[in-house]
Design goal:
The protein is mainly alpha-helical and 186 residues long. The chain is 59% helix and 5% strand.
């Protein structure tokens, strides 16, 4: 593979603009750049989760998701380019089915936490929801292909289920929410 970037500090963004994949320059606070940044942050958060996991199915699934998120970012970076398709969201549905299979039905809301890895998965879930909101906002003013939204929506669900799965595997279980009307420490 040829070198894609030979210079990292180009200084071309010093004026508050950045380049899209098609060469167009836009403001660094453009909705497209915000969506790309949130997807990049999500991918980085998944990298942190992966640093906590041993090599197992969840690690392999998350690594595959990282590659898809990179493609999703490329799609956002190049207006009109399509990289994420409906089958990518269906792959997440298959993962959801697998990880949900051994989990007890939810009887109450749960709080983020438990093991460190589960807590990091919950952070990834919230970053994913933010990325989804950024993509929806972008879609109100520019074309965004529906599979991009679908993928992020499914992924946040999967990250929630994966956090529950990790806690269950560790013997921690879910941390159930208590009504705010209950007394602290009671």
């Amino acid at each position: 593979m040829a070198n894609r970037l030979s210079v990292i500090a180009t200084r071309t963004g010093d004026d508050g603009t950045t380049g899209l994949g098609d060469g167009t320059r836009v403001s660094k606070d453009d909705l497209r750049i915000a969506a790309m940044g949130d997807v990049d942050e999500l991918n980085s958060t998944l990298g942190l989760v992966l640093a906590e996991l041993s090599e197992d199915r969840l690690a392999r699934d998350l690594r595959s998701i990282q590659h898809c998120l990179f493609d999703l970012g490329a799609e956002l970076s190049i207006p009109g380019y399509v990289a994420v398709k409906e089958e990518h969201a269906r792959d997440l549905d298959d993962c959801l089915k697998h990880y949900n299979a051994t989990l007890a039905p939810l009887q109450e809301f749960i709080l983020p936490g438990g093991t460190r890895t589960a807590a990091l998965l919950h952070v990834a879930r919230t970053v994913c929801r933010r990325a989804e909101r950024a993509v929806v906002a972008l879609g109100r003013v520019q074309t965004v292909h529906p599979p991009v939204r679908q993928y992020l929506n499914r992924l946040s669900d999967l990250l929630f289920v994966a956090a529950r799965h990790v806690n269950q595997e560790a013997g921690t279980g879910d941390i159930l929410w208590k009504s705010p009307n209950s007394r602290i420490g009671a």
